[in-house]
Automatic annotation (TrEMBL):
InterPro entries (alphabetical): AF1862-like_dom_sf, CRISPR-assoc_prot_Cmr5
Subcellular location: Cytoplasm
Region (Disordered): 1-41
Upper lineage: Bacteria, Pseudomonadati, Acidobacteriota, Terriglobia, Terriglobales
Keyword Iron-sulfur among record annotations: no
Record keywords, A-Z: Antiviral defense, Cytoplasm
One protein family per Pfam: Cas_Cmr5
CDD domains assigned to the protein according to its UniProt record, in alphabetical order: Cmr5_III-B
UniProt record similarity statement: Belongs to the CRISPR system Cmr5 family.
Keyword hit for Cytoplasm: yes
Protein name: CRISPR type III-B/RAMP module-associated protein Cmr5
Example GO BP: defense response to virus
Length: 133
């Protein structure tokens, strides 16, 4: 009997697929530069720790640097924490309208997911040169 993949393996699998889609400019990554995806993913954990998940995601959305990154995070969180009832599917909207428990759980999950995403993005060469942004 085959065992179920661990949560960390599922995070890794989703992150790997996200990096591959970004690299090939597929789906939500069609209008973004792959290196911008990797660069913004690398900066996101610091932004989350500094300003919080909602502020970090709002910054990402406002700047439009990596719309695919926001889409991948939303997809992963919706898999891990399916929206209940009338809860919105958009991650940023869920953060704004959700309670403290949703914010805490989503923050922990996004930070854990970004560990894998950043490792794979770096491994696939999706890194930006040092620049201010």
């Amino acid at each position: 009997m085959a065992s179920q993949p661990t949560l960390d393996q599922r995070r890794a699998s989703h992150a790997w697929e996200a990096v591959q889609r970004a690299k090939q400019k597929q789906g939500p990554h069609q209008k973004q530069e792959p290196k911008k995806f990797g660069g913004q993913a690398k900066k996101l954990p610091v932004r989350i720790m500094t300003a919080g998940l909602g502020q970090a995601l709002a910054f990402l959305k406002a700047k439009g640097y990596a719309p695919g990154l926001l889409a991948e995070l939303t997809d992963w969180i919706n898999q891990r924490m399916p929206p209940q009832g009338n809860e919105p599917k958009d991650l940023l909207e869920r953060i704004v309208k959700g309670n403290a428990d949703v914010l805490r759980r989503a923050t922990d999950e996004v930070l854990a997911y970004l560990l894998w995403l950043n490792r794979f993005a770096e491994a696939e060469g999706l890194t930006e040169e040092t620049e201010a942004s």
